[in-house]
């Protein structure tokens, strides 16, 4: 039970009685009803209790009645109802005076009705009130659910406050008041700031009871409060749970707003980076915007990762879909999440700026990408987006002004890999930087150099020549380690050593001489270029 004495006096049959003293106590809260049948009732009374009595225990001692009224008031009783006609015909003046003095309501109970009649009337009224309150609560719950499932709202906070029918405020952790439908000014609302980051209640300066819920993101990081003004001190636990649900939805909404803001800022920053790469603006303009949005763009060593679709993929919609899939992998895949500081989507591919502290981290990325995006993935089982892409990695850079250089290295790696017909899903610019250096050399110069050096091999039978060239390529690829070359060829290392000895004799070169090895590397590199050149 929860009502004021004034509300209780409006309920039949108690409404047939009269308030004869203590009118200033009409706002006392009634929580239960009891019958006074013992001399020491004041020792057993509960806070908010209304006591009914025939005054039998104090009929011969009115002065004790006045003292009893004082005790009941101090114990927190709500009111005293006295039924006249049996032992008293009127309530003694001393009791009425004491009740008026301390503001303790004295009710003259209606004679025709028993105590149980009046108790039942109060209980029925409380039951009806509780049922109605629960009905309204269910309606609010349904409205809140429809609101939550209804998509984005232009006036999110206003609509939510209207559904809850409750003044509310939303305050960020930096004391910014995002919304308030309360009568209190911001300064008054924030007077006791900072607040403890857990659900609690407090009183405003005007006496209003406020319920505060901390707002946390998906990482359980506290970022503000939802404040609800309680309509009455007796609001139920169910109502509190409804407000707690509303606070959770507010937290989710704020997180969505933050994600949307970050997406907008990232999109704008990506556009500025693209303008810089097109030489429309300076790098200072890009960095200035990054600082404004509190992004530490390229403030530490970084590299560029250039992702392009397979050449066979010509449909623009398919290209966009694949590149979008790569972006999502960098956002959500456990091994890639948070790795790319910024992603710039262009027509030809996707440029990712990836912070890296040292070369070992570059190597880790180069080895991680083919593992995650295997070209052998079964399309029916859900082929990763990266299975349709090539990845090109620039050298490590230490200054933002080197961004354009890193981008050009990615493009050069892509062009050189195409010219060399490299069948690699991931190409690190460092691995083909040497080849990129000679891409502008005239074709006839390349042909003359390689022909002069490799002619003795070409004169051998085709099968033997191919075996020699393969041995040379693997030997150079593994930096002169015969054991590693032997593993790739599935032969014994002595076999490789013997072949190299015979090749050296055939070409008149010492394969332990650095200058001779460099000549061979150039000759084989030029051969790769010449194989890709169209016939004129």
UniProtKB/TrEMBL annotation:
Annotated Gene3D superfamilies: PucR C-terminal helix-turn-helix domain
Residues covered by the Purine catabolism PurC-like domain: 14-120
Domain of life, per lineage: Bacteria
Pfam family, one: PucR
Domain PucR C-terminal helix-turn-helix: 469-525
Family matches, as PANTHER family: CARBOHYDRATE DIACID REGULATOR, DNA-BINDING TRANSCRIPTIONAL ACTIVATOR ADER
Protein name, entry field: PucR family transcriptional regulator
Species lineage: Bacteria, Bacillati, Bacillota, Bacilli, Bacillales
């Amino acid at each position: 039970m929860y009502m004021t004495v004034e509300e209780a006096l409006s309920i039949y049959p108690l409404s047939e009685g009269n308030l004869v003293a203590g009118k200033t106590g009409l706002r006392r809260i009634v929580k239960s009803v009891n019958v006074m049948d013992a001399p020491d009732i004041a020792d057993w009374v509960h806070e908010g209790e209304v006591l009914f009595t025939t005054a039998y225990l104090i009929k011969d001692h009115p002065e004790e009645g006045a003292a009893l009224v004082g005790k009941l008031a101090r114990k927190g009783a709500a009111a005293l109802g006295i039924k006249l006609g049996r032992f008293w015909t009127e309530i003694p003046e001393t009791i009425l005076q004491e009740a008026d003095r301390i503001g303790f309501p004295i009710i003259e109970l209606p004679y025709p009705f028993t105590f149980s009649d009046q108790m039942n009337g109060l209980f029925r009224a409380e039951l009806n009130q509780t049922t109605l309150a629960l009905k309204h609560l269910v309606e609010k719950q349904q409205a809140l659910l429809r609101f939550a499932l209804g998509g984005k709202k232009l006036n999110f906070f206003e609509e939510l406050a209207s559904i809850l029918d409750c003044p509310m405020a939303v305050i960020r952790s930096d004391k910014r008041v995002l919304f308030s439908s309360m009568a209190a000014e911001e300064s008054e609302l924030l007077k006791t700031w900072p607040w403890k980051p857990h659900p609690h209640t407090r009183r405003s300066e005007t006496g209003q009871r406020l319920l505060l819920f901390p707002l946390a993101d998906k990482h359980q990081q506290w970022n503000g409060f939802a404040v609800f003004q309680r309509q009455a001190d007796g609001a139920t636990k169910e109502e509190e749970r409804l407000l707690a649900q509303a606070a959770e939805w507010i937290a989710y909404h704020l997180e969505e707003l933050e994600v949307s803001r970050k997406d907008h800022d990232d999109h704008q920053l990506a556009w500025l980076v693209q303008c810089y790469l097109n030489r429309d603006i300076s790098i200072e303009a890009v960095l200035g915007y990054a600082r404004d949005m509190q992004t530490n763009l390229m403030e530490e060593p970084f590299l560029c990762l250039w992702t392009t679709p397979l050449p066979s993929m010509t449909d623009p919609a398919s290209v966009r879909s694949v590149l979008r899939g790569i972006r999502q992998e960098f956002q959500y895949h456990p091994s890639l999440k948070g790795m790319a500081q910024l992603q710039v989507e262009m027509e030809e591919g996707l440029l990712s700026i990836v912070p890296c502290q040292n070369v070992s981290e570059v190597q880790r990325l180069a080895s991680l990408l083919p593992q995650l995006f295997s070209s052998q993935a079964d399309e029916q089982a859900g082929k990763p987006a990266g299975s349709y892409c090539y990845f090109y990695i620039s050298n490590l850079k230490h200054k933002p002004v080197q961004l354009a250089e890193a981008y050009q290295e990615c493009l050069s790696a892509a062009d050189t890999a195409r010219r060399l017909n490299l069948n690699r899903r991931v190409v690190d610019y460092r691995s083909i930087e040497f080849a990129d250096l000679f891409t502008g050399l005239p074709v006839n110069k390349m042909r003359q150099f390689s022909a002069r050096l490799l002619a003795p091999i070409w004169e051998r039978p085709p099968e033997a020549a191919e075996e020699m060239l393969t041995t040379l390529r693997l030997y150079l690829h593994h930096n002169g380690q015969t054991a590693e070359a032997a593993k790739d060829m599935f032969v014994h290392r002595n076999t490789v050593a013997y072949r190299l000895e015979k090749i050296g004799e055939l070409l008149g070169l010492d394969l332990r001489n650095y200058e001779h090895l460099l000549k061979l590397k150039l000759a084989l590199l030029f051969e790769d270029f010449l194989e890709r050149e169209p016939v004129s």
